[in-house]
Amino acid sequence: MNLELFIARKIRSGGLTGKRLAGPVTRVATLGIILGMVVMILSLAIGFGFKKEIRQKIIGFGSHIQIMNYDYNQSYETNPISPDSTLLKSLRNIPGIKHIQKFATKPGMIKTGNAIQGVVLKGVSTDFNWHFFKEIIVEGDTLQLNDSVSSKEILISHKLAQMLHLSVGDDLRMYFLQKNKIAPRGRKFVIKGIFDSNLPEFDKLYALVDIKQVQRLNSWDKTQISGLEIQIDDFDNIEQRGEEVSSVATSFIDESGVMLRTRTILDLQPQIFGWLDLLDMNVLVILVLIMIVAGFNMVSGLLILILERTNMIGILKALGIQNSSLRKVFLYLATFIVGRGLIWGNFIGVSFCLIQKYTGIIKLDPENYYLETVPIQITFWHLFILNVATILLTTLMMLGPSYLASKISPVKAIRFD
């Protein structure tokens, strides 16, 4: 029989004579661990979920990596490139490249009867990945494109539609400034769909059209585009993939002598991703604080149990129990409390996460949070690391009180009341 384990179980159940505080104290300590775990799991899941959702929205407008003309032009009035099949084949051979698509941009102005708004036309082709926009379409449908006929359909945001009092099926007239021309050039489009990403900075900026429309406005031939957008399979590898794409792109020079450069989404939106990185620090601070509070909750509970069992400790030491065995008794007791707290805390915390993820019961104000529901993103490894860290921290904090129990004098402890 494991004597230390037997004594610890008796103390936990209140089966030994004494003041019988063990039951309430262990329940309070266990409840503290449960609440701490629930809050930590929710903080982790919501923090990662918010970061993932915002990141996916930004990537939906600009992909992970862009290849453009090596002219360091920072405006949306770009100089063209003419990628050939050799370049595209070399890019597709890079591990982790999921999709490559062409795009072209042209800044212009939307004019209605009593309003005017500047936007950037983003021309897309038949190779465009519509997955993101299909998720955020609120009216109408995506553009129907083909390689032979130019489409006059346009996709605008819900924000623009509200500002300009437009709806699906309405005609929309735009004007563009041309090089070496004073008079602006006009184009009429038909609104095919309206999207809403809840990111006003992007919603008010972009409108999607057939890439052939932008090529004509820029007086380009069908091989000329603003650049290539590349999507990868893992955002965590974006810097490595960016370097590999850059190595291939910078070695390419077309017939007119144009060289290429690459930009990752981190380069294009440094402020937003810097803000998202701060969320990691906020979540880390919350986790550390809660772990420390839970640890001190355990320490205070164990000290109360030691104080309650001072007389028992003296008797056990008088009977010859070793200090190491006495420490094990209270470490076992702490393990019971932490183990039960972790099991229930994980169950309740994960249950809350699953309910929110699949029902979206808790709503958010998109104007303030850019999302309509509280986002949830958590994996097995997140839970594993969180539980291991909690166990290690609480175990280390338990060593002090257990060591204190072994230092109690038997003579004074037996007389203790």
Features:
2 domains; six-stranded mixed β-barrel; 53% helix
Layout: helices, strands, pairs:
Blueprint: H1 3-13, H2 22-62, E1 65-69, H3 85-92, E2 97-111, E3 116-124, H4 131-136, E4 137-140, E5 153-157, H5 158-164, E6 171-176, E7 185-195, H6 200-203, E8 206-210, H7 211-217, E9 227-232, H8 238-249, E10 260-264, H9 265-268, H10 270-308, H11 310-318, H12 323-359, H13 366-369, H14 380-406, H15 410-414
Parallel strand pairs: 3-8, 5-7
Antiparallel strand pairs: 1-9, 1-10, 2-3, 2-6, 2-9, 4-7, 5-8, 6-7
Commentary on this structure:
Strand 6 and strand 7 (185-195) form a beta hairpin. This protein has a six-stranded mixed barrel with strand order 2-3-8-5-7-6. It folds into two domains: 3-57 and 273-414, no CATH class; 71-258, no CATH class. The two termini are 30 Å apart. 53% of the residues lie in helices and 17% in strands. The protein contains 15 helices and ten strands. 33% of the residues are buried. Helix 1 (3-13) packs across helix 12 and helix 2 (22-62) packs across helix 12 (323-359). The protein has helices at residues 3-13, 22-62, 85-92, 131-136, 158-164, 200-203, 211-217, 238-249, 265-268, 270-308, 310-318, 323-359, 366-369, 380-406, 410-414; strands at residues 65-69, 97-111, 116-124, 137-140, 153-157, 171-176, 185-195, 206-210, 227-232, 260-264. The mean pLDDT is 85. The longest helix has 41 residues, at 22-62. The protein has 417 residues and is of the alpha+beta class.
